[in-house]
Amino acid sequence: MRVLQRWRRDPVARLLRSATQPAVVIRDFAGVALLDSSPAPATLVDALSLEPTAAMRLARRIYWHLVEGGDYVVAAPDEQVAAAIETAWRALAEGRPTVHLPRRRRVRRELRRAIGGVRRDGRLVIVTKAGRSFFRLAEAEAALIGARTATDVEVLEHRDGHEFTPRRSVHSYGEHRDTPLETVAVPAGEVRRYTGDLTLHEGMVVSAETTLLPETFKWFEHQPLDNSQLRGITTRFARFRNEPLSADRLPGSYYLFEYKNSGHYGHLLTEGIAKLWGWEVARRHDPDVRLALRRHKRDRGRDVMRPDTAILQAYGVDPADIVWLEGPAQVERLYAATPQLHNKEPFSIDPRIVEVWDRMLHGLLREAPDPTTGTRIFVTRHSGHRLCHNWPDVEAEFTDAGFEVVEPARRSLAEQARLFADAEVVAGFGGTGLFNLIFAAHGPPVVVLNQAAYDARNEELITAARGSDLHYFWSAPDLPQPARGFDYAAFQSPWTFDLAQHRVPLRDLLASL
Predict the structure, then answer these.
(1) pLDDT computed for residue 291 by the predictor
(2) Residues of the chain with pLDDT under 70
């Protein structure tokens, strides 16, 4: 039995003799803090709260540590207080108002759906927990997995965090609420090996028992930690939006290469490749490790050629070492690396990512056309998100300035790599097409046209690592972002390039490049 504080008074001692184990008694706030680094209890006793409001406030914070079907017990100082606490829990379960309930509506809703039953035994109030809640583990907390679960974690390689000052300039024309990144705080990076029962769910969710590994969160430095497959309960806990499917067991060792929106070229080039630096580290420790990559639901059962295979093969990954996941999978050994690109506040990129980019570039160029010189390219887009309404007029401006208008997606990966590797100036509409800047190894100047509600900074991060001078031209979106908060529809809004505002400075800039 695990007991954070000994508590021998009846009736708690009597309860503990028959309680489902592990059982934890909380008598002070030091015990509350220890819950984060302890296995999930089956019985959790609040022996700290002396009145109903304090009891409900503490429950809001710690109730989620319980396993599904576990008992949350409030040891009240007397039966009168216990009766008031019981009334508060029953009111919560039935959706009735009471002064003792948490103020936040979301927390009240989540507590209500997680109540499986309420009963009282003298001055003990016992609430049975319904459903599972999962503890969100941050990147810097990966070592806690061994304390919380039966899974072990080993750090195979560690790189200290540092500050990085890009050797380039950034100029903006038009209004945009973000300021250029003058210095980048690069977080520490690790290659880790997890050993235990680990489940790879759909949507990049990785769990060990009821703990979510840091690999679950695309933006691992951003708070709160989030994943679209999850619904937040508190800042530390979440639940699945939909009950996860049962997982098939896969034998062997796997390197996690999953990324959001699997199969999307832009997400592959930014989020996926950012995890690739640890592949060789994993191979040194386990030559039989295979790379795990999820097949998008839309591609299952179809003969679809994904760009991942060509990109990984150019890096040196044998296609025979790629395992395509098509549902939840349970594995015993999992290797993972801290991503080297973080396109969310706090924005960062590890400049050592160019080692990965260059290795891929050299692999792709073996199948590419012969080199060219003197090319100035404009990357256009005629459909999809953030469509520029007056794209023909914009293309004409760049054509007149000696640019070749290109649509990279219509070319092979080798041709795209050659196009950007040879370009002396790169311009275009912001987005996936320009992410090929990872192949612009000699750092040409870059001109990006975009709408001001788009807050992703992939081009800025890529050019920071490559050393390209960057010139932004911002125009108003059809749908602006709200004064407070974030609207995804505004993020993806169509727009019109403001020629009245930008024509003269754009022509002057293009003439100077």
Answers:
(1) 98
(2) 1-9, 99, 101-103, 304
> How many CA within 13 A on the CB side of residue 233?
24
Three-class DSSP category at 439: helix
Helix (H, G, I), strand (E, B) or coil at 123: coil
In terms of Cα–Cα distance, which of 433, 387, 395, 390 is closest to 411?
433
- What's the pLDDT score for residue 4? 43
Tokens (6 digits) for 484: 């407070």
| pLDDT reported for residue 262 | 87
How far apart CA 87 and CA 310 sit, in angstroms, is 62
Q: What is the CA radius of gyration of the chain?
A: 27
> Which pair of tokens denotes residue 163?
């500050």
Maximal CA-CA distance, the chain: 88
254 burial class (0-12, 13-18, 19+ CB within 10 angstroms)? buried
Query: How confident is the model over 164-178, as pLDDT tens digits?
Result: 999 999 999 998 878
DSSP character at residue 363 = H
User: Which string of b and e fits 426-441 if b means at least 16 CB within 10 Å?
Assistant: bbbbbbbbbbbbbbbb
Rounding to the nearest 10 degrees, give the CA dihedral for residues 158, 459, 446, 170.
-80
Q: What are phi and psi of 161, to 5 degrees?
A: -70, 155
Please state the three-class secondary structure of 481-507 as a single string: CCCCCCCHHHHCCCECCCHHHHHHHHH
HEC string of 307-318?
Answer: HHHHHHHHHCCC
3-state secondary structure of 76: coil
Asked if the bond preceding 102 is cis, omega within 30° of 0, the reply is no
The rounded mean pLDDT for the chain is 92
Tokens of 336: 């993972």
Residue whose entry in the numeric block shows the structure tokens 């896969």: 250
CA distance 358 to 378: 23
In 95-191, which residue ranges form alpha helices assigned H by DSSP? 105-113, 145-148
Beta strands in 283-352 (DSSP E): 290-294, 322-325, 329-337, 341-342, 348-349
Determine the Cα angle at 440 with ends 353 and 340, to 5°: 15
- What's the one-letter identity of residue 349? I
346 cis-preceded (ω within 30 degrees of 0):
yes
Q: Please tell me the distance from the alpha carbon of residue 430 to that of residue 465, in angstroms, as a whole number.
A: 17
464, 492 Cβ separation under 8 angstroms: no
For 341, the 3-state DSSP assignment is: strand
CA distance 434 to 475: 18
What whole-number distance in Å separates Cα of residue 42 and Cα of residue 34? Answer: 16
Q: Name residue, tokens 């401006």.
A: 397
CA distance 178 to 168: 18
Q: Which residue has the tokens 């760049």?
A: 398
3-state helix, strand, coil in the chain (%, to 5): 35, 25, 40
